[in-house]
Amino acid sequence: MATLELNGVTKIYDDAQGRETAVDSLDLSAAGGEFVVLVGPSGCGKSTTLRMLAGLETVTSGTIEIDGREVQDLAPSERSIAMVFQSYALYTKMTARENMAYGLKHSTDLDERERGRRVEEIAELLDIVDLLDDVPAEMSGGQKQRVALGRAIVRDPSVFLLDEPLSNLDAKLRARMRTELKRIQTDLGVTTVYVTHDQTEAMTMADRIAVMDDGELQQVDPPETAYDHPTNEFVATFLGSPAMNTFDATVEAADDELALRRDGTTFATIPAHAVSLDDVEAVRVGLRPEDLRLDDAPGEGGFEAAVTVSEYQGNDNFVHLSADDLTLTARVPPSVYPSPGETVGVSVDPADVYLFDPTSGAALKTRGLDARSFERRPVSTPE
Ligand code: ADP
Ligand code: MG
């Protein structure tokens, strides 16, 4: 199981359209056998990072190490990596068997019988034995994706790179392949970097997720840590569906409490010890939809809101609310289904209130009530 390490990896494109830093001083590592998911919005530099790992793109500066060996100047074939693309990139005239065996012929010194055996073994793992003699035109999207995976796995790479491999599949198949890919990766124990813009894929598959924005790494953590303790507002709002509600508020201290207020309404009150906000008067408040509780009338610490739309989801409901000039979304159990126009009380547990610096976006308070329970990591802040 190979380790992977990127140190200060930077890619600057300098072409007719101008100069652009696609990836900026990226530090990232993966332990042997780890599944790291690189996630972020379109254009944030995920594919560029993966292509530099694969050797399909040069690095402008920085180093890439696989098992302690610097590989950034090596040809793709010398790096012991295999990459799967969204487009599958199968040879259209070759059968699945030939597609899978093709790379083996060039990348290993296995003889023909051994190659055949290896292909069969991986075909078994991927449940594509029946397809081995078909050409891509005879296969469905999901089947082509499996063959493309098989072609990469069969080479027994040290590092496995996948760039949005499930994007072309329909939603149901995507969910199934997600589970299956995770199982296969765990079985094989191969160090994997997986790129996606889909936060659900990232959250469900990753040992650790690496969140990127605009060429810069924002946070690398296990999914639950990134979700509960995001380093900044970008990460907080990127992870979770529906997205976290965020808005500006002022902080008013009274006794041992801090009231988070806006236009005369107190949206939440938190114990002063939960956060160190010396001299901070303005904050961004973050409330996750699933943390909003709805009652017939506002209770202690709650506020009033009008229901604009209730969306029935089957397993839960999304209730859209308006409070003063704010619109908020609550995710509530299916039994809670208020009608449009109804007035409800909304409350949130102080532990579940997130606070961010309105200028830098850096997290000031995440989930929990102990300010010290969460040590803030370095955050890249916009200039
Ligand atoms: P992602 O995969 O996260 O969507 P990319 O890595 O493809 O993002 O792109 C990152 C940035 O680099 C984008 O702004 C994109 O326009 C730019 N970019 C990608 N490839 C090239 C290229 N060959 N020449 C110039 N700019 C590029
Ligand atoms: Mg991409």
From TrEMBL:
Reactions the enzyme catalyzes: L-arabinose(out) + ATP + H2O = L-arabinose(in) + ADP + phosphate + H(+); D-xylose(out) + ATP + H2O = D-xylose(in) + ADP + phosphate + H(+)
A cellular component term, taken from the record's GO annotations: plasma membrane
Record Pfam families: ABC_tran, TOBE_2
Residue ranges occupied by any ABC transporter domain in the UniProt entry: 4-239
Enzyme Commission designation: 7.5.2.13
InterPro entries in the cross-refs: AAA+_ATPase, ABC_transporter-like_ATP-bd, ABC_transporter-like_CS, ABC_transpr_MalK/UgpC-like, Mo/tungstate-bd_C_term_dom, NA-bd_OB-fold, P-loop_NTPase, Transp-assoc_OB_typ2
Enzyme class: translocase
Family: Belongs to the ABC transporter superfamily. Carbohydrate uptake transporter-1 (CUT1) (TC 3.A.1.1) family.
Official protein name in the record: ABC-type D-xylose/L-arabinose transporter
